[in-house]
Amino acid sequence: MKKPNDVPYKLSKPCVAVMSCALLGAGCFSSFSALSGSSALSEPALSEPTAQSEAMPGASIEKIEIQGKAVSLIGEAISASEGIIGQQEILNRPMLRIGEILELVPGMVVTQHSGTGKANQYFLRGFNLDHGTDFATSIDHMPINMRTHGHGQGYTDLNFVIPETIQTITFKKGAYYGQVGDFSGAGGAAFNTVNQLQPTQLSATIGEDNFQRYLLAGGIALDNEHINYAVEFNRYDGPWTDIKEDLDKTNVFLSYNNKLKSGDLKVTFMGYDNTWNSPDQIPQRAVSAGTIDELGSLDTSLGGKSSRYSINAIWKNQNFNASAYIIDYDLNLWSNFTYFLDNPVTGDQFEQVDKRRIYGGHLSYTAFTSWQGMPVSNEFGAETRIDNIDEVGLFQTQQKQRLGAVRNDAVDESSLGFYWQNSIIWSDAIKTIFSARYDYFDFDVRSHINTNINGIDLSANKGNESAGNVALKANIIYTFNENWEAYVSAGQGFHSNDARGTIAQVDPNSGESIMPVDPIVDSLGYELGLRANLFDKLNASLSIWRLNLDSELLFVGDAGNTEPSDSTSRYGIELTGYYSISDSLTLDLEYAYTDAKFDQLPNDANLIPGALEHVVQAGVSYQQQQGWFANARLRYFSERPLIEDGSVTSDDSQIVNLNLGYKFIQLTLKLDILNALNSNDHDIDYYYASRLASEPLGSATEDLHYHVLEPRTLRLSAVYKF
């Protein structure tokens, strides 16, 4: 009998290999045909968004050709803290892991405290976003954030993304945008996959510690339609002393593009399958005592396996944009952060489980009119999402073998959102954008167990809950001239809480009675911004922002319960600059400052643990159509408090990544030098109590637990385009 979350279309590796050979042959044939006279390569089947000025007479907005962050968004943006990242920027960036693609968002820091296969840790605007809470991510209108997730609310795993298939990433920091709903407090990023026919390419990367990555990607031209595809294999053991990560990742991307009626249709399949072993964070005292070195582990049986399969369709024209999707997802993750603190005999290892199907879609309509001779647009949108979670659980384990369940639930969570966004161009200088949004959530939680491994009756931890939320957003844009633009923005955002926390009555660890949490946590943000484009060489922006959050309530998947905290306030300054010295040579600098505090705690104990105060990213890039190219990147983030009174802090951290290569007509060779200066700074730090096997029974030692930057590593790539 088929289990509810069995994936009938899951691909085996031999099947993927056969499909890759077939696609390569078809792609090569298509490429040679194009070279023989076909014009299909230059004709995108899915058109870019139409400029407002084409539908609104007198409008001063002109759609620009997207190149990346160095392109001026004056006349396009509605705040100083939004932008567009182009495909070439993505491919030029030297990255250790795919999750670091989000470091292209100014001010964002992406780190890892575990194995390569696990979602990264994200830091932005004073948030330790854990694995994604308060930062909304999507790909082709499909959500990436996972609600009511086994590891953490908003879990954002980007391992299914193939960078060569991403055309642009649009990021919007702050809560000023009507189209963004759940997890919108700090902002969001939307990944947009390629539309136009892609050239066929074969890519191979090899590196230290058995790093291997192989890619086949391209397009197949048909009559008035085309297919794009990509197949990726990735292997990696890592530099760790006593663990081989044994990463085994396979990704598949397949999209069909065609004209349909008066619009453009795109249907996409994505498949992801991964297994890995995990080197988790380690206690400083174990390293100081010589028990392990900085690349060692105290529990060598940790790791995970995950898969994600999706099908989505998008249809759009000048006025309508519609999409629908289905996602099948599962995760098994084994971790051990406290070693022998809670269970002196079997250890504190635990497994987190998440098996679900997600259904959803979105529909929007934009009407272009005029009022009193002024161009007006009104966008009306609706979206829905249904998470059928067959199992979301937490288990005590030893050597990955289950000893018993802490909690194990089934959840049905659905949401429905509506928004209206109005834009009026009052004059050549002034434009306003006003948005209103309503979201409704429904939660249904059922426990798979009555009594857990701790002997606690969990039969009360079930039930139904629902909640609605209204959010208003407003933006005023003042255009001084074609080189300068100013912004005033304000908006309400929110994130949903884990459904299990909204109906919880009993703590699964202590058995104590607990109060359910609010289903929705509101936030309110403000921002002043300035954007400049000078001499067609310098593109710069400045934003001064503030964000108030009602409560940083979140479900702690590691413990199986919900931990509430007080309301918080954050404010900061962000500065970005992109300077083109010549057509080939560019410089960039991104700086972010944040002050983050709890509102109701004493002044000497109100710091938010993990909040980064200073973040700097800087780079230089030399690119030519052919010949030599090079990129150098510096990332720095300052020390941060690890407890509220600031008596324990992390050290600051910096890393330099480089690449150097040569482009022939069809062949590109590249060498990535990651952590080029071989920094042994920490990727991430925590401060909490744990117990080593050698320490006295019943003891609990507060200590720094950290994950070191991976040592310098070299990776050599060859890309051949047909």
Commentary on this structure:
The protein has 722 residues and is mostly beta strands. It has a single domain (45-197, 238-594, 618-637), classed as Beta Barrel (Maltoporin, Chain A). It has five helices and 35 strands. It has helices spanning 13-35, 52-55, 87-92, 284-288, 499-503; strands at residues 82-86, 109-111, 121-124, 127-128, 136-139, 142-143, 166-173, 187-193, 201-207, 211-221, 225-236, 247-260, 263-277, 282-283, 303-316, 320-335, 350-371, 374-398, 401-425, 430-447, 463-481, 484-496, 520-534, 538-549, 554-556, 561-563, 568-580, 585-598, 614-622, 627-637, 653-663, 667-674, 682-690, 701-708, 713-721. The protein has a 22-stranded antiparallel barrel. Strands 1-7-8-5-6 form a five-stranded mixed β-sheet. The radius of gyration is 25 Å and the shape is globular. It starts with 12 loop residues before the first helix and ends with a strand.
